[in-house]
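To illustrate the input format used throughout this study, we show a single complete record. The first block contains the structure-token representation of the backbone; no residue identities are included at this stage. The design step must infer an amino acid for every position from geometry alone.
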């Protein structure tokens, strides 16, 4: 039961991960460290990537390679409060550059308290997770665009290419407020429009909601990562990005250098657009409705800590 998880005397994810890391063979640690430095240097070739790496160093963010991450279907992951991002070690170097940009954006979000570890209700959590993923996609696509400009032979995957194509269209007739932000905005919108990312993350958010409402029990096999991202562990109490107050919400779009914000000043109410806050797939809609009904019967309104990132 979800509440039983909260009774345990849990260690932090970082404590568990450090134990696993310490037990690894020395030759692997040396190899991984060298490859990580290579990927960081590649990322820093791009203007946005250079800002990201500067922020990463200043904030003491650690990077590890995870050799089981591929089984979880992820390019990487970040645990709030850990100051650590983990990357899918099986990805080729250029794809790791994009994955690193994405995960380091999550680390930035985590340092700002935007990654929710407190659960209020299913709709709030679903919107919060959508928006932090859309924001990470925006940074990922910006870096991809800059990488392609330097390495024209690089072929982005279909999702990234669709976002880049959208950015080029926007550059032709973008309003003044979007000038210079077209690629970031295309990445943000692309999360909701292209491929299956939105539905995939909606499924994960609903899985968390189902566990928090005792509809299903946690299945660790769904997140078989090397550093145990799916295991119970202490998480800092973050309310997450504010999805009720537009003035607070736009802080999600700040740059790593704190001098820009691609979400500020847009002539649209992001929080009021159905494509951003609703429009679930038929399967996810049924799950969403079931959780809403359970929450309505329970009458729970107080935010509760999430026992793990699921």
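Output of the design step:
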């Amino acid at each position: 039961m979800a509440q039983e998880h909260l009774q345990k005397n849990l260690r932090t994810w970082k404590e568990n991960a450090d134990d696993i890391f310490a037990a690894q063979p020395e030759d692997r640690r040396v190899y991984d460290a060298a490859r990580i430095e290579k990927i960081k240097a590649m990322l820093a070739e791009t203007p946005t990537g250079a800002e990201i790496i500067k922020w990463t160093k200043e904030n003491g963010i650690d990077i590890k390679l995870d050799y089981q991450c591929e089984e979880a279907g992820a390019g990487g992951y970040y645990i709030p409060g850990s100051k650590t991002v983990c990357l899918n070690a099986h990805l080729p170097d250029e794809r790791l550059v994009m994955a690193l940009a994405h995960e380091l954006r999550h680390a930035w979000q985590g340092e700002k308290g935007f990654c929710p570890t407190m659960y209020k209700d299913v709709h709030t959590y679903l919107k919060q997770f959508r928006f932090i993923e859309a924001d990470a996609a925006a940074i990922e696509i910006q870096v991809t665009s800059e990488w392609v400009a330097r390495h024209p032979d690089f072929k982005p995957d279909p999702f990234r290419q669709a976002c880049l194509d959208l950015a080029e269209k926007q550059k032709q007739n973008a309003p003044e407020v979007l000038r210079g932000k077209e690629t970031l905005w295309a990445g943000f919108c692309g999360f909701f429009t292209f491929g299956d990312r939105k539905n995939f993350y909606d499924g994960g958010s609903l899985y968390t909601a189902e566990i928090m409402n005792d509809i299903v029990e946690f299945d660790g096999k769904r997140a078989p990562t090397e550093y145990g991202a799916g295991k119970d562990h202490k998480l800092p109490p973050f309310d997450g990005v504010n999805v009720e107050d537009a003035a607070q919400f736009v802080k999600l779009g700040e740059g790593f250098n704190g001098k820009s914000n691609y979400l500020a000043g847009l002539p649209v109410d992001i929080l009021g657009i159905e494509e951003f806050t609703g429009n679930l797939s038929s399967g996810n809609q049924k799950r969403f409705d079931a959780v809403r009904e359970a929450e309505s019967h329970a009458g729970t309104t107080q935010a509760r800590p999430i026992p793990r990132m699921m």
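Structural context for interpreting the output: The chain has twelve helices and five strands. The chain has one domain: 2-305.
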